[in-house]
Amino acid sequence: MLQLLPQSKILTPDSTEPNKAVEYINSYIEKYHCENLNVDISFMNVLDACFVSMVCSAKHYVKYPDGKINWKISSEIIRDFNKCLELGNSDYIV
């Protein structure tokens, strides 16, 4: 059964390790109804944040092709790096 949570909730991974952060976010996507999701990865370095946002955006897109993920990031470099690889479901907030 899907659980509904407020859309304004900000999900923050509990690890700075990219693989654990991906597991945490993807688990959340599988478990809850989260067509529009806010995720804070601003504490991660640029490369890890790029990796996490791209892998999790792909997972989210498979479940919610019309959904959106708002990524809170620390640098515009992340947005620029991921621009070519986007599926159209990611917004980046610095």
TL;DR of this structure?
The chain is α/β, with parallel strands linked by helices and 94 residues long. The chain has helices spanning 18-31, 46-63, 76-82; strands spanning 3-4, 10-11, 32-33, 36-40, 68-72, 90-93.
**SSE topology string:** EEHEEHEHE
Total strands: the figure is 6
Q: What Rg, in angstroms, do the CA atoms define?
A: 12 Å
End-to-end distance, in Å?
A: 34 Å
Mean pLDDT: 91
Please tally the helical runs, counting DSSP H or I stretches of 4 or more residues.
Answer: 3
Descriptive report:
This protein is an alpha/beta fold and 94 residues long. Helix content is 41%, strand content 21%. The strands form two sheets. A four-stranded parallel beta sheet has the order 2-4-5-6, covered by helices on one side. Strands 1-3 form a two-stranded parallel ribbon. Helix 3 (76-82) links the parallel strand 5 and strand 6. Helix 1 runs parallel beside helix 2. Mean pLDDT is 91; it is low at 1-6.
Which secondary structure elements does this structure contain, and how are they paired or packed?
Elements: E1 3-4, E2 10-11, H1 18-31, E3 32-33, E4 36-40, H2 46-63, E5 68-72, H3 76-82, E6 90-93
Parallel strand pairs: 1-3, 2-4, 4-5, 5-6
Please tag this protein with its features.
94 residues, alpha/beta, 4-stranded parallel sheet, two-stranded parallel sheet, 21% strand
